[in-house]
């Protein structure tokens, strides 16, 4: 059992398959962006805390687009854990492993997937009870070949990974074919350039393409 992320939440995320990684500069874009993704079949997101408007964008999506499983990324401090929890985010992730952040997520009851890139980080997160891990940056680190090798000694633990970094429509299927991949994330679905232009139609089309690959691989 995953005591940190939650088995039911993990199953729900696996059924969604694709996580849109979002950087929102203008909170007014939050709701139309989320609706465009949902219309395209993507109902899970990682809203990164890289902009001053991120928390306001999160609150608007939670309030106005209930179909969206609103995850939050780039959580770097224990204080941000509490802020994200108060805003009713569905889950949180971090780019790396910070024990204080994970411990605060456990204390606050925020489903959380810490980032890992090496074996010692896997062992540190497992020690805290984590079984859903973010693998970042996935492709620059060596992609599936690297993750296969690194996960091999820990396969009996039933760990699941959310790879982000360098994923795109061309390599999406190869990641989804692996049973230990819970879901995949990427910013190519809704890049900052399309959000800035408020090109919701193109974002919707990207979501449809990504979900087509997901359904072809996982049914």
Topology:
Elements: H1 7-16, E1 18-22, H2 30-39, E2 44-48, H3 54-64, E3 69-73, H4 78-86, E4 91-93, H5 99-108, E5 112-113, E6 115-116, H6 119-127, E7 132-135, H7 138-141, H8 143-151, E8 160-163, H9 172-176, E9 184-186, H10 192-196, H11 200-218
Please provide a brief summary of the model.
With 219 residues, the chain is an alpha/beta fold. It is 46% helix and 15% strand. The chain has helices at 7-16, 30-39, 54-64, 78-86, 99-108, 119-127, 138-141, 143-151, 172-176, 192-196, 200-218; strands spanning 18-22, 44-48, 69-73, 91-93, 112-113, 115-116, 132-135, 160-163, 184-186.
The portion of residues forming beta strands comes to: 15-25%
Number of helices: 11
Q: Biggest sheet, open or closed, and with what strands and sense?
A: 6 strands, parallel
Instruction: Kindly report how far apart the N and C termini lie.
Output: 25 Å
Q: Spatial order of the strands in the main sheet?
A: 5-4-3-2-1-9
CATH H-level superfamily: Aldolase class I
Highest-level CATH class:
Alpha Beta
Could you please say which CATH topology applies here?
TIM Barrel
* Total count of domains: 1
Helix content: 40-55%
Radius of gyration: 16 Å
CATH architecture: Alpha-Beta Barrel
Mean pLDDT: 96
Helices and strands, in order, run as HEHEHEHEHEEHEHHEHEHH
What characteristic shape results from the CA principal axes?
globular
Q: What structural class is derived from the secondary structure elements? A: alpha/beta
Can you count the beta strands? 9
Poorly predicted segments: none
């Amino acid at each position: 059992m995953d005591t940190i992320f939650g088995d039911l939440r993990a199953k729900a995320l696996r059924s969604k398959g694709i996580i849109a990684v979002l950087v929102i500069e203008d909170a007014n874009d939050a709701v139309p962006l989320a609706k465009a993704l949902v219309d395209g079949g993507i109902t899970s997101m990682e809203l990164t805390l890289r902009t001053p408007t991120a928390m306001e964008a999160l609150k608007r999506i939670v309030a106005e687009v209930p179909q969206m499983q609103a995850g939050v990324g780039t959580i770097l401090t224990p204080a941000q854990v509490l802020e994200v929890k108060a805003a009713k985010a569905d889950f949180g992730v971090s780019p790396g492993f910070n024990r204080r952040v994970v411990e605060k997520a456990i204390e606050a009851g925020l489903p959380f997937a810490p980032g890992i890139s090496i074996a010692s980080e896997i062992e540190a997160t497992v020690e805290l009870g984590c079984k859903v891990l973010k693998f970042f940056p996935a492709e620059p680190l060596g992609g599936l070949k690297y993750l296969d090798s690194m996960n091999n000694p820990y396969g009996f633990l039933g760990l699941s990974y959310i790879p982000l970094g360098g994923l795109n429509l061309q390599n999406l299927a190869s990641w989804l074919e692996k049973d230990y991949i819970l879901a995949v994330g990427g910013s190519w679905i809704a890049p900052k350039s399309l959000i800035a232009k408020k090109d919701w139609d193109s974002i919707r089309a990207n979501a449809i393409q990504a979900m087509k690959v997901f359904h072809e691989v996982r049914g």
